[in-house]
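Exercise 3.2. Students should predict the tertiary structure of the chain below and write it as structure tokens, then compare their answer with the key that follows.

Predict this chain's 3D structure.
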Amino acid sequence: MIEEILSRYLFLYYIGIIKKHFFNLYFTFDNYDIIKKINTNKFGGHR
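Answer key:
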């Protein structure tokens, strides 16, 4: 019984960590893309 609760808790905990890392990566890549667009527009570059 205790093992079942612990395994379920760990499962949800790891899903939370993975989701957090995924969203952090997603937003940093998104921001990086936006910054790149702004810089290329400022200097009249391609893209």
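Discussion points: The radius of gyration is 20 Å. The mean pLDDT is 76.
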